[in-house]
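Researcher: Let's walk through a ligand-bound prediction step by step. First, I give you the protein sequence. Second, the SMILES string for flavin mononucleotide. Third, you return the three-dimensional complex as C-alpha coordinates. Ready?
Model: Ready.
Researcher: Here are steps one and two:
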Amino acid sequence: MERYSVFGVVTVLAILSLIGVFFSGWFLIPYILFSLLMILGVRDLVQPRHSILRNYPIIGHMRFLFEGIRPEIRQYLIESDQDEEPFSRDERSLIYQRAKGVEDKRPFGTKQRVYDSGFQWLTHSVNPHHIEDHDFRVRVGGRDCRQPYDLSIYNISAMSFGALSANAILALNTGAKKGGFAHDTGEGGISRYHRQGGGDLIYQVGSGYYGCRTDDGRFDPEKFREQAANPQVKMIELKLSQGAKPGHGGVLPASKISEEIAEARGVPMGVDCVSPPSHPEFSTPIGLCQFIGKLRDLSEGKPVGIKLCIGHRREFMCIVKAMLETDIVPDFIIIDGKEGGTGAAPVEFADRLGMPLVEGLTFAHNTLRGVGLRDRLKIGASGKMVSAFDIARILALGADWANSARGFMFSIGCIQAQACHTNHCPVGVATQDKMRQRALNVTNKSERVYRFHKNTLKALAEMTGAAGLDHPCDFLPHHLMMREKDRDMVTGEEVYPYLPEGFLLRNEEVGFGYLKRWTRARAESFAPVDYIP
Ligand SMILES: Cc1cc2nc3c(=O)[nH]c(=O)nc-3n(C[C@H](O)[C@H](O)[C@H](O)COP(=O)(O)O)c2cc1C
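Model: Step three, the predicted complex:
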Protein backbone atom coordinates (compact mmCIF):
# COMPACT_ATOMS: atom_id res chain seq x y z
CA MET A 1 0.00 0.00 0.00
CA GLU A 2 3.07 2.24 -0.22
CA ARG A 3 1.41 4.06 -3.12
CA TYR A 4 -0.96 5.68 -0.64
CA SER A 5 1.86 6.55 1.76
CA VAL A 6 2.35 10.13 0.58
CA PHE A 7 -1.36 10.78 0.90
CA GLY A 8 -1.30 9.16 4.34
CA VAL A 9 1.66 11.23 5.54
CA VAL A 10 0.15 14.46 4.21
CA THR A 11 -3.12 13.72 6.02
CA VAL A 12 -1.31 13.05 9.30
CA LEU A 13 0.76 16.23 8.91
CA ALA A 14 -2.39 18.23 8.17
CA ILE A 15 -3.98 16.92 11.38
CA LEU A 16 -0.77 17.51 13.40
CA SER A 17 -0.38 21.05 12.09
CA LEU A 18 -4.04 21.70 12.89
CA ILE A 19 -3.32 20.68 16.46
CA GLY A 20 -0.19 22.87 16.27
CA VAL A 21 -2.29 25.87 15.32
CA PHE A 22 -3.80 25.78 18.86
CA PHE A 23 -0.26 26.29 20.15
CA SER A 24 1.15 28.70 17.55
CA GLY A 25 -0.24 30.61 14.58
CA TRP A 26 2.84 29.67 12.59
CA PHE A 27 1.39 26.23 12.18
CA LEU A 28 -1.28 27.79 10.00
CA ILE A 29 1.14 27.79 7.03
CA PRO A 30 1.92 24.06 7.07
CA TYR A 31 -1.73 23.40 7.98
CA ILE A 32 -2.95 25.21 4.85
CA LEU A 33 -0.29 23.54 2.68
CA PHE A 34 -0.95 19.99 3.90
CA SER A 35 -4.72 20.48 3.86
CA LEU A 36 -4.57 21.58 0.23
CA LEU A 37 -2.45 18.54 -0.59
CA MET A 38 -4.84 16.32 1.32
CA ILE A 39 -7.79 17.73 -0.62
CA LEU A 40 -5.85 17.10 -3.83
CA GLY A 41 -5.29 13.53 -2.68
CA VAL A 42 -8.99 12.99 -1.97
CA ARG A 43 -9.85 14.46 -5.38
CA ASP A 44 -7.32 12.10 -7.00
CA LEU A 45 -8.88 9.09 -5.29
CA VAL A 46 -12.42 9.86 -6.47
CA GLN A 47 -11.91 11.43 -9.95
CA PRO A 48 -12.78 8.89 -12.74
CA ARG A 49 -10.47 10.05 -15.54
CA HIS A 50 -6.90 9.36 -14.47
CA SER A 51 -6.34 5.78 -13.21
CA ILE A 52 -2.76 6.58 -12.23
CA LEU A 53 -3.96 9.28 -9.76
CA ARG A 54 -6.59 6.92 -8.30
CA ASN A 55 -3.80 4.45 -7.56
CA TYR A 56 -1.10 7.02 -6.70
CA PRO A 57 -2.87 10.00 -5.16
CA ILE A 58 -0.71 13.17 -5.05
CA ILE A 59 2.56 11.50 -6.26
CA GLY A 60 0.88 10.45 -9.54
CA HIS A 61 1.03 14.10 -10.62
CA MET A 62 4.83 13.77 -10.98
CA ARG A 63 4.21 11.64 -14.08
CA PHE A 64 2.20 14.39 -15.78
CA LEU A 65 4.78 16.97 -14.65
CA PHE A 66 7.59 15.08 -16.42
CA GLU A 67 5.41 14.32 -19.47
CA GLY A 68 4.54 18.03 -19.67
CA ILE A 69 8.13 19.32 -19.65
CA ARG A 70 9.06 20.39 -23.21
CA PRO A 71 11.24 20.36 -25.28
CA GLU A 72 14.63 19.74 -23.65
CA ILE A 73 13.91 17.07 -21.00
CA ARG A 74 11.16 15.55 -23.15
CA GLN A 75 13.61 15.25 -26.11
CA TYR A 76 16.10 13.60 -23.75
CA LEU A 77 13.41 11.27 -22.41
CA ILE A 78 12.30 10.36 -25.95
CA GLU A 79 15.78 9.66 -27.23
CA SER A 80 16.78 7.78 -24.10
CA ASP A 81 13.91 5.26 -23.98
CA GLN A 82 12.19 5.42 -27.34
CA ASP A 83 13.57 2.15 -28.60
CA GLU A 84 12.85 0.49 -25.25
CA GLU A 85 9.15 0.67 -25.79
CA PRO A 86 6.95 -1.63 -27.91
CA PHE A 87 4.80 1.40 -28.81
CA SER A 88 6.33 4.82 -29.44
CA ARG A 89 5.14 7.95 -27.66
CA ASP A 90 3.54 9.18 -30.90
CA GLU A 91 1.65 5.93 -31.43
CA ARG A 92 0.33 6.06 -27.86
CA SER A 93 -0.60 9.74 -27.93
CA LEU A 94 -2.64 9.19 -31.12
CA ILE A 95 -4.56 6.41 -29.34
CA TYR A 96 -5.08 8.54 -26.19
CA GLN A 97 -6.31 11.45 -28.34
CA ARG A 98 -8.83 9.28 -30.18
CA ALA A 99 -9.95 7.65 -26.93
CA LYS A 100 -10.47 11.05 -25.33
CA GLY A 101 -12.20 12.37 -28.44
CA VAL A 102 -9.55 15.07 -28.83
CA GLU A 103 -9.07 16.08 -32.45
CA ASP A 104 -6.05 14.21 -33.87
CA LYS A 105 -4.72 17.11 -35.94
CA ARG A 106 -1.08 18.23 -36.04
CA PRO A 107 0.32 21.59 -37.17
CA PHE A 108 3.44 22.08 -39.23
CA GLY A 109 3.44 18.77 -41.08
CA THR A 110 4.79 15.25 -40.57
CA LYS A 111 7.59 14.19 -38.20
CA GLN A 112 8.06 11.03 -40.21
CA ARG A 113 11.51 10.64 -41.79
CA VAL A 114 10.14 10.14 -45.28
CA TYR A 115 13.51 9.48 -46.93
CA ASP A 116 14.53 6.75 -44.47
CA SER A 117 14.43 3.17 -45.76
CA GLY A 118 11.37 1.39 -44.53
CA PHE A 119 9.17 4.48 -44.69
CA GLN A 120 5.73 3.50 -46.04
CA TRP A 121 2.78 5.50 -47.38
CA LEU A 122 -0.55 5.03 -49.19
CA THR A 123 -1.30 6.50 -52.61
CA HIS A 124 -4.19 8.99 -52.84
CA SER A 125 -6.40 10.01 -55.73
CA VAL A 126 -7.04 13.30 -57.50
CA ASN A 127 -10.66 12.22 -57.31
CA PRO A 128 -11.20 11.61 -53.58
CA HIS A 129 -14.52 10.34 -52.23
CA HIS A 130 -16.37 11.39 -49.10
CA ILE A 131 -17.43 8.37 -47.06
CA GLU A 132 -20.24 9.22 -44.64
CA ASP A 133 -20.81 5.90 -42.91
CA HIS A 134 -17.63 4.41 -41.39
CA ASP A 135 -19.25 1.41 -39.72
CA PHE A 136 -17.24 -0.94 -41.96
CA ARG A 137 -18.03 -4.65 -41.63
CA VAL A 138 -17.22 -8.01 -43.21
CA ARG A 139 -19.54 -11.01 -43.20
CA VAL A 140 -17.84 -13.98 -41.55
CA GLY A 141 -19.30 -17.40 -42.26
CA GLY A 142 -18.45 -19.82 -45.08
CA ARG A 143 -20.49 -22.45 -46.94
CA ASP A 144 -21.07 -24.67 -43.88
CA CYS A 145 -21.81 -21.84 -41.46
CA ARG A 146 -25.48 -21.48 -40.45
CA GLN A 147 -25.13 -18.31 -38.36
CA PRO A 148 -22.85 -15.90 -40.27
CA TYR A 149 -21.81 -12.76 -38.37
CA ASP A 150 -21.31 -9.21 -39.69
CA LEU A 151 -18.05 -8.38 -37.93
CA SER A 152 -16.62 -4.87 -37.60
CA ILE A 153 -13.30 -4.57 -39.43
CA TYR A 154 -11.67 -3.51 -36.14
CA ASN A 155 -12.15 -5.52 -32.93
CA ILE A 156 -10.66 -6.24 -29.52
CA SER A 157 -8.10 -9.02 -29.78
CA ALA A 158 -7.91 -11.91 -27.33
CA MET A 159 -6.90 -10.98 -23.76
CA SER A 160 -8.06 -13.32 -21.05
CA PHE A 161 -9.78 -12.51 -17.81
CA GLY A 162 -6.91 -13.24 -15.49
CA ALA A 163 -4.36 -11.45 -17.63
CA LEU A 164 -6.69 -8.45 -17.40
CA SER A 165 -8.65 -7.23 -14.41
CA ALA A 166 -12.42 -7.53 -13.99
CA ASN A 167 -12.85 -3.77 -14.49
CA ALA A 168 -10.75 -3.89 -17.65
CA ILE A 169 -12.84 -6.72 -19.10
CA LEU A 170 -16.04 -4.90 -18.18
CA ALA A 171 -14.87 -1.58 -19.67
CA LEU A 172 -13.72 -3.29 -22.91
CA ASN A 173 -16.92 -5.27 -23.28
CA THR A 174 -19.21 -2.35 -22.46
CA GLY A 175 -17.37 -0.19 -24.99
CA ALA A 176 -17.66 -2.97 -27.60
CA LYS A 177 -21.37 -3.22 -26.88
CA LYS A 178 -21.84 0.51 -27.48
CA GLY A 179 -19.73 0.45 -30.66
CA GLY A 180 -21.21 -2.77 -32.03
CA PHE A 181 -17.81 -4.44 -32.44
CA ALA A 182 -16.53 -7.76 -31.08
CA HIS A 183 -14.52 -8.62 -28.00
CA ASP A 184 -12.38 -11.76 -28.05
CA THR A 185 -12.41 -13.52 -24.66
CA GLY A 186 -8.86 -14.85 -24.84
CA GLU A 187 -8.23 -18.33 -23.53
CA GLY A 188 -9.48 -17.64 -20.00
CA GLY A 189 -13.14 -18.45 -20.72
CA ILE A 190 -16.26 -16.28 -20.57
CA SER A 191 -16.35 -14.43 -17.26
CA ARG A 192 -19.28 -12.80 -15.44
CA TYR A 193 -17.81 -9.45 -16.56
CA HIS A 194 -18.05 -10.40 -20.24
CA ARG A 195 -21.70 -11.33 -19.61
CA GLN A 196 -22.35 -8.15 -17.61
CA GLY A 197 -21.08 -5.94 -20.45
CA GLY A 198 -23.38 -7.60 -22.97
CA GLY A 199 -21.05 -6.96 -25.94
CA ASP A 200 -20.53 -9.41 -28.82
CA LEU A 201 -18.04 -12.13 -27.94
CA ILE A 202 -15.58 -14.25 -29.84
CA TYR A 203 -15.20 -17.28 -27.57
CA GLN A 204 -11.60 -18.46 -27.69
CA VAL A 205 -10.87 -22.14 -27.05
CA GLY A 206 -7.23 -22.63 -26.12
CA SER A 207 -5.36 -25.79 -25.18
CA GLY A 208 -6.65 -25.43 -21.62
CA TYR A 209 -10.31 -25.65 -22.86
CA TYR A 210 -11.33 -23.13 -20.17
CA GLY A 211 -15.07 -23.03 -19.65
CA CYS A 212 -15.52 -26.27 -21.61
CA ARG A 213 -13.21 -28.78 -19.93
CA THR A 214 -13.45 -32.01 -17.97
CA ASP A 215 -11.82 -32.29 -14.54
CA ASP A 216 -8.68 -33.72 -16.13
CA GLY A 217 -8.39 -30.87 -18.62
CA ARG A 218 -9.83 -32.52 -21.74
CA PHE A 219 -12.48 -30.98 -23.99
CA ASP A 220 -16.09 -31.32 -22.71
CA PRO A 221 -18.54 -31.11 -25.65
CA GLU A 222 -21.62 -30.52 -23.48
CA LYS A 223 -20.03 -27.67 -21.54
CA PHE A 224 -18.86 -26.20 -24.85
CA ARG A 225 -22.36 -26.49 -26.34
CA GLU A 226 -23.69 -24.57 -23.36
CA GLN A 227 -21.09 -21.79 -23.70
CA ALA A 228 -21.54 -21.54 -27.46
CA ALA A 229 -25.33 -21.29 -27.14
CA ASN A 230 -24.95 -17.96 -25.31
CA PRO A 231 -26.41 -15.36 -27.75
CA GLN A 232 -23.51 -13.02 -26.91
CA VAL A 233 -21.14 -15.54 -28.52
CA LYS A 234 -20.96 -14.70 -32.21
CA MET A 235 -17.89 -16.67 -33.27
CA ILE A 236 -15.66 -19.49 -31.95
CA GLU A 237 -11.87 -19.16 -32.21
CA LEU A 238 -9.62 -22.17 -31.76
CA LYS A 239 -6.24 -20.90 -30.57
CA LEU A 240 -3.22 -22.74 -31.95
CA SER A 241 -0.67 -20.05 -31.02
CA GLN A 242 -0.10 -16.33 -30.42
CA GLY A 243 2.78 -14.32 -31.87
CA ALA A 244 4.38 -13.25 -28.61
CA LYS A 245 4.85 -16.81 -27.32
CA PRO A 246 4.23 -19.35 -30.11
CA GLY A 247 4.46 -22.98 -29.03
CA HIS A 248 4.55 -21.92 -25.40
CA GLY A 249 1.71 -22.81 -23.06
CA GLY A 250 0.81 -20.70 -20.07
CA VAL A 251 0.48 -21.09 -16.33
CA LEU A 252 -1.75 -19.00 -14.09
CA PRO A 253 -0.30 -19.57 -10.61
CA ALA A 254 -2.73 -20.80 -7.91
CA SER A 255 -2.14 -17.56 -5.98
CA LYS A 256 -3.73 -15.60 -8.83
CA ILE A 257 -6.81 -17.82 -9.19
CA SER A 258 -9.70 -16.00 -7.57
CA GLU A 259 -13.18 -17.44 -7.20
CA GLU A 260 -14.28 -15.47 -10.31
CA ILE A 261 -11.38 -16.79 -12.41
CA ALA A 262 -12.05 -20.34 -11.26
CA GLU A 263 -15.71 -19.86 -12.20
CA ALA A 264 -14.90 -18.53 -15.70
CA ARG A 265 -12.35 -21.24 -16.42
CA GLY A 266 -14.13 -24.13 -14.78
CA VAL A 267 -11.05 -25.00 -12.73
CA PRO A 268 -10.57 -25.66 -9.00
CA MET A 269 -9.01 -22.99 -6.75
CA GLY A 270 -5.64 -23.52 -5.05
CA VAL A 271 -4.10 -25.41 -8.00
CA ASP A 272 -1.91 -23.91 -10.75
CA CYS A 273 -3.90 -23.48 -14.00
CA VAL A 274 -1.82 -24.93 -16.86
CA SER A 275 -2.46 -24.35 -20.57
CA PRO A 276 -0.39 -27.04 -22.38
CA PRO A 277 1.68 -25.87 -25.40
CA SER A 278 -0.41 -28.05 -27.77
CA HIS A 279 -3.99 -29.29 -27.90
CA PRO A 280 -4.71 -32.67 -26.31
CA GLU A 281 -7.75 -33.13 -28.62
CA PHE A 282 -5.83 -33.42 -31.93
CA SER A 283 -2.28 -33.96 -33.15
CA THR A 284 -2.69 -34.09 -36.94
CA PRO A 285 -3.93 -31.58 -39.56
CA ILE A 286 -6.91 -33.79 -40.35
CA GLY A 287 -7.60 -34.11 -36.61
CA LEU A 288 -7.59 -30.30 -36.37
CA CYS A 289 -10.10 -29.94 -39.23
CA GLN A 290 -12.36 -32.58 -37.71
CA PHE A 291 -12.24 -30.72 -34.38
CA ILE A 292 -13.24 -27.50 -36.21
CA GLY A 293 -16.18 -29.40 -37.74
CA LYS A 294 -17.15 -30.66 -34.28
CA LEU A 295 -17.07 -27.15 -32.79
CA ARG A 296 -19.24 -25.90 -35.66
CA ASP A 297 -21.85 -28.61 -35.07
CA LEU A 298 -21.85 -28.13 -31.30
CA SER A 299 -22.30 -24.37 -31.77
CA GLU A 300 -25.29 -24.79 -34.09
CA GLY A 301 -23.31 -23.54 -37.09
CA LYS A 302 -21.71 -20.41 -35.64
CA PRO A 303 -18.54 -19.26 -37.47
CA VAL A 304 -15.54 -21.28 -36.29
CA GLY A 305 -11.95 -20.31 -37.00
CA ILE A 306 -8.35 -20.72 -35.91
CA LYS A 307 -5.79 -18.24 -34.59
CA LEU A 308 -2.10 -18.79 -35.13
CA CYS A 309 1.27 -17.19 -35.65
CA ILE A 310 2.98 -18.76 -38.68
CA GLY A 311 5.89 -20.97 -37.64
CA HIS A 312 7.02 -23.72 -40.04
CA ARG A 313 5.31 -22.61 -43.24
CA ARG A 314 5.00 -26.22 -44.37
CA GLU A 315 2.84 -26.95 -41.30
CA PHE A 316 0.33 -24.29 -42.33
CA MET A 317 0.25 -25.97 -45.73
CA CYS A 318 -0.46 -29.30 -43.97
CA ILE A 319 -3.58 -27.68 -42.47
CA VAL A 320 -4.62 -26.38 -45.90
CA LYS A 321 -4.11 -29.84 -47.42
CA ALA A 322 -6.30 -31.27 -44.64
CA MET A 323 -9.00 -28.70 -45.49
CA LEU A 324 -8.95 -29.94 -49.09
CA GLU A 325 -8.96 -33.60 -48.01
CA THR A 326 -11.72 -33.30 -45.40
CA ASP A 327 -13.58 -30.44 -47.11
CA ILE A 328 -13.85 -28.92 -43.64
CA VAL A 329 -12.82 -25.29 -44.09
CA PRO A 330 -12.75 -22.88 -41.11
CA ASP A 331 -14.87 -19.74 -41.53
CA PHE A 332 -11.91 -17.55 -40.60
CA ILE A 333 -8.23 -17.59 -39.80
CA ILE A 334 -6.57 -15.00 -37.56
CA ILE A 335 -2.90 -14.46 -38.30
CA ASP A 336 -1.05 -13.04 -35.31
CA GLY A 337 2.34 -11.41 -35.81
CA LYS A 338 5.38 -12.05 -33.71
CA GLU A 339 5.26 -8.34 -32.82
CA GLY A 340 2.05 -9.07 -30.93
CA GLY A 341 1.65 -8.60 -27.21
CA THR A 342 1.15 -10.86 -24.23
CA GLY A 343 0.60 -10.68 -20.49
CA ALA A 344 3.87 -12.49 -19.99
CA ALA A 345 6.26 -14.50 -22.20
CA PRO A 346 9.86 -15.76 -21.99
CA VAL A 347 12.10 -13.06 -23.50
CA GLU A 348 13.58 -15.24 -26.23
CA PHE A 349 10.13 -16.46 -27.25
CA ALA A 350 8.90 -12.87 -27.46
CA ASP A 351 12.00 -11.79 -29.38
CA ARG A 352 12.97 -14.68 -31.61
CA LEU A 353 10.11 -17.10 -32.28
CA GLY A 354 7.28 -16.67 -34.78
CA MET A 355 6.85 -14.83 -38.07
CA PRO A 356 6.11 -11.09 -38.24
CA LEU A 357 2.56 -10.28 -39.27
CA VAL A 358 3.14 -9.00 -42.81
CA GLU A 359 5.08 -12.09 -43.88
CA GLY A 360 2.74 -14.47 -42.03
CA LEU A 361 -0.35 -12.88 -43.54
CA THR A 362 0.88 -12.75 -47.15
CA PHE A 363 2.04 -16.36 -46.89
CA ALA A 364 -1.33 -17.60 -45.55
CA HIS A 365 -3.30 -15.43 -48.01
CA ASN A 366 -1.31 -16.70 -51.00
CA THR A 367 -1.34 -20.35 -49.90
CA LEU A 368 -5.14 -20.21 -49.71
CA ARG A 369 -5.26 -18.47 -53.14
CA GLY A 370 -2.93 -21.17 -54.42
CA VAL A 371 -5.55 -23.86 -53.68
CA GLY A 372 -8.65 -21.79 -54.51
CA LEU A 373 -9.87 -21.65 -50.89
CA ARG A 374 -9.26 -17.94 -50.22
CA ASP A 375 -12.86 -16.94 -50.99
CA ARG A 376 -14.30 -19.58 -48.65
CA LEU A 377 -13.01 -17.86 -45.50
CA LYS A 378 -12.05 -14.51 -44.02
CA ILE A 379 -8.65 -13.57 -42.67
CA GLY A 380 -8.16 -11.43 -39.54
CA ALA A 381 -4.80 -9.89 -38.64
CA SER A 382 -3.35 -8.80 -35.30
CA GLY A 383 -0.03 -7.38 -34.21
CA LYS A 384 0.38 -3.66 -33.56
CA MET A 385 -2.82 -2.61 -35.39
CA VAL A 386 -3.36 0.74 -33.65
CA SER A 387 -3.85 3.34 -36.40
CA ALA A 388 -5.94 3.77 -39.54
CA PHE A 389 -2.78 3.38 -41.63
CA ASP A 390 -1.95 0.07 -39.88
CA ILE A 391 -5.43 -1.25 -40.74
CA ALA A 392 -5.42 0.03 -44.35
CA ARG A 393 -1.98 -1.48 -44.96
CA ILE A 394 -2.91 -4.90 -43.61
CA LEU A 395 -6.16 -4.95 -45.62
CA ALA A 396 -4.15 -4.04 -48.74
CA LEU A 397 -1.85 -7.01 -48.09
CA GLY A 398 -4.69 -9.53 -47.92
CA ALA A 399 -6.53 -9.34 -44.58
CA ASP A 400 -10.31 -8.77 -44.25
CA TRP A 401 -10.21 -7.23 -40.75
CA ALA A 402 -7.84 -6.26 -37.97
CA ASN A 403 -7.78 -6.93 -34.24
CA SER A 404 -5.92 -5.05 -31.57
CA ALA A 405 -5.12 -5.99 -28.00
CA ARG A 406 -2.72 -3.34 -26.67
CA GLY A 407 -4.38 -0.57 -28.70
CA PHE A 408 -7.53 -1.09 -26.63
CA MET A 409 -5.43 -1.53 -23.47
CA PHE A 410 -4.12 2.02 -24.06
CA SER A 411 -7.68 3.23 -24.57
CA ILE A 412 -8.57 2.05 -21.03
CA GLY A 413 -5.58 3.83 -19.52
CA CYS A 414 -2.58 1.48 -19.98
CA ILE A 415 0.61 3.58 -19.71
CA GLN A 416 2.92 0.81 -20.99
CA ALA A 417 4.44 0.33 -17.55
CA GLN A 418 5.17 -3.24 -18.72
CA ALA A 419 4.29 -4.60 -15.30
CA CYS A 420 1.52 -6.91 -16.58
CA HIS A 421 3.25 -10.01 -15.14
CA THR A 422 3.76 -8.52 -11.64
CA ASN A 423 0.11 -8.01 -10.63
CA HIS A 424 1.20 -4.42 -9.78
CA CYS A 425 -0.24 -2.71 -12.83
CA PRO A 426 -0.27 1.02 -11.84
CA VAL A 427 -3.51 1.75 -13.67
CA GLY A 428 -5.57 -1.34 -12.74
CA VAL A 429 -5.63 -2.88 -16.24
CA ALA A 430 -3.52 -6.07 -15.87
CA THR A 431 -3.93 -7.02 -12.21
CA GLN A 432 -6.15 -9.14 -9.98
CA ASP A 433 -5.48 -6.83 -7.01
CA LYS A 434 -8.93 -5.47 -6.14
CA MET A 435 -7.56 -2.16 -4.75
CA ARG A 436 -5.39 -1.55 -7.80
CA GLN A 437 -8.15 -2.27 -10.30
CA ARG A 438 -10.42 0.17 -8.47
CA ALA A 439 -8.37 2.83 -10.28
CA LEU A 440 -10.00 1.85 -13.55
CA ASN A 441 -13.35 3.64 -13.70
CA VAL A 442 -15.52 1.47 -15.95
CA THR A 443 -17.98 4.19 -17.02
CA ASN A 444 -15.20 6.56 -18.02
CA LYS A 445 -13.00 3.93 -19.68
CA SER A 446 -15.76 2.14 -21.62
CA GLU A 447 -16.54 5.48 -23.27
CA ARG A 448 -12.89 5.69 -24.28
CA VAL A 449 -12.99 2.20 -25.78
CA TYR A 450 -16.03 3.21 -27.84
CA ARG A 451 -14.46 6.52 -28.95
CA PHE A 452 -11.09 4.98 -29.81
CA HIS A 453 -12.79 2.48 -32.11
CA LYS A 454 -15.12 5.07 -33.64
CA ASN A 455 -12.40 7.67 -34.26
CA THR A 456 -9.96 5.10 -35.66
CA LEU A 457 -12.58 3.95 -38.19
CA LYS A 458 -13.43 7.59 -38.92
CA ALA A 459 -9.77 8.23 -39.77
CA LEU A 460 -9.77 5.05 -41.87
CA ALA A 461 -12.84 6.29 -43.78
CA GLU A 462 -11.06 9.58 -44.50
CA MET A 463 -7.95 7.76 -45.78
CA THR A 464 -10.08 5.35 -47.86
CA GLY A 465 -11.99 8.27 -49.39
CA ALA A 466 -8.76 10.19 -50.05
CA ALA A 467 -7.53 7.17 -52.02
CA GLY A 468 -10.70 7.37 -54.13
CA LEU A 469 -12.02 4.07 -52.71
CA ASP A 470 -15.42 3.26 -51.18
CA HIS A 471 -14.48 0.62 -48.58
CA PRO A 472 -11.18 -0.08 -46.77
CA CYS A 473 -11.24 -3.65 -48.13
CA ASP A 474 -10.75 -2.07 -51.59
CA PHE A 475 -7.14 -1.31 -50.67
CA LEU A 476 -4.77 -3.48 -52.72
CA PRO A 477 -0.98 -3.99 -52.63
CA HIS A 478 -0.41 -1.38 -55.34
CA HIS A 479 -1.88 1.32 -53.07
CA LEU A 480 1.00 0.79 -50.65
CA MET A 481 4.38 2.37 -51.35
CA MET A 482 7.63 1.63 -49.51
CA ARG A 483 11.13 3.06 -49.50
CA GLU A 484 13.70 0.29 -49.75
CA LYS A 485 17.26 0.04 -48.42
CA ASP A 486 18.74 1.76 -51.48
CA ARG A 487 16.22 4.55 -50.92
CA ASP A 488 14.43 3.34 -54.05
CA MET A 489 10.63 3.26 -53.80
CA VAL A 490 8.64 0.11 -54.57
CA THR A 491 4.96 -0.81 -54.44
CA GLY A 492 3.41 -3.39 -52.15
CA GLU A 493 2.56 -5.31 -55.30
CA GLU A 494 6.25 -5.78 -56.12
CA VAL A 495 7.15 -6.98 -52.61
CA TYR A 496 3.96 -8.72 -51.45
CA PRO A 497 2.12 -9.68 -54.67
CA TYR A 498 -1.18 -11.60 -54.66
CA LEU A 499 -0.11 -14.88 -56.30
CA PRO A 500 -2.27 -16.43 -59.06
CA GLU A 501 -5.39 -18.34 -58.01
CA GLY A 502 -4.85 -22.11 -58.08
CA PHE A 503 -1.07 -22.05 -58.65
CA LEU A 504 -0.46 -24.79 -56.07
CA LEU A 505 -3.12 -27.07 -57.53
CA ARG A 506 -1.38 -26.68 -60.91
CA ASN A 507 2.04 -27.24 -59.27
CA GLU A 508 3.06 -23.92 -60.82
CA GLU A 509 6.45 -22.61 -59.62
CA VAL A 510 5.96 -18.97 -58.58
CA GLY A 511 9.06 -18.66 -56.37
CA PHE A 512 9.12 -17.66 -52.67
CA GLY A 513 9.48 -21.39 -51.78
CA TYR A 514 5.75 -22.16 -51.97
CA LEU A 515 5.86 -25.20 -54.26
CA LYS A 516 8.82 -26.86 -52.50
CA ARG A 517 7.00 -26.69 -49.14
CA TRP A 518 3.65 -27.69 -50.67
CA THR A 519 5.09 -30.93 -52.02
CA ARG A 520 6.54 -31.77 -48.58
CA ALA A 521 3.30 -31.00 -46.72
CA ARG A 522 0.70 -33.70 -45.96
CA ALA A 523 -2.78 -33.75 -44.43
CA GLU A 524 -2.38 -36.78 -42.19
CA SER A 525 0.65 -35.51 -40.22
CA PHE A 526 2.52 -32.33 -39.32
CA ALA A 527 5.77 -34.18 -39.97
CA PRO A 528 7.19 -33.65 -43.51
CA VAL A 529 6.75 -36.52 -46.06
CA ASP A 530 10.49 -37.16 -46.11
CA TYR A 531 10.74 -37.05 -42.31
CA ILE A 532 12.81 -39.94 -40.93
CA PRO A 533 11.91 -40.31 -37.22
C1 LIG B 1 -2.42 -8.81 -21.83
C2 LIG B 1 -2.54 -9.68 -23.04
C3 LIG B 1 -3.18 -10.91 -22.92
C4 LIG B 1 -3.31 -11.73 -24.06
N1 LIG B 1 -4.00 -12.92 -23.95
C5 LIG B 1 -4.18 -13.67 -25.07
C6 LIG B 1 -4.97 -14.86 -25.02
O1 LIG B 1 -5.50 -15.25 -23.99
N2 LIG B 1 -5.13 -15.57 -26.18
C7 LIG B 1 -4.55 -15.16 -27.37
O2 LIG B 1 -4.72 -15.82 -28.41
N3 LIG B 1 -3.81 -14.03 -27.45
C8 LIG B 1 -3.63 -13.29 -26.33
N4 LIG B 1 -2.91 -12.12 -26.43
C9 LIG B 1 -2.37 -11.71 -27.75
C10 LIG B 1 -3.31 -10.73 -28.44
O3 LIG B 1 -4.60 -11.24 -28.59
C11 LIG B 1 -2.83 -10.35 -29.83
O4 LIG B 1 -2.82 -11.48 -30.61
C12 LIG B 1 -1.49 -9.72 -29.83
O5 LIG B 1 -1.28 -9.03 -28.68
C13 LIG B 1 -1.34 -8.76 -30.99
O6 LIG B 1 -1.93 -7.67 -30.83
P1 LIG B 1 -1.48 -6.21 -30.27
O7 LIG B 1 -0.21 -5.83 -30.95
O8 LIG B 1 -2.62 -5.42 -30.70
O9 LIG B 1 -1.33 -6.32 -28.82
C14 LIG B 1 -2.76 -11.30 -25.31
C15 LIG B 1 -2.13 -10.06 -25.42
C16 LIG B 1 -2.02 -9.25 -24.31
C17 LIG B 1 -1.33 -7.93 -24.45
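Researcher: And what stands out?
Model: The radius of gyration is 25 Å. The chain has two domains: 2-65, 137-517.
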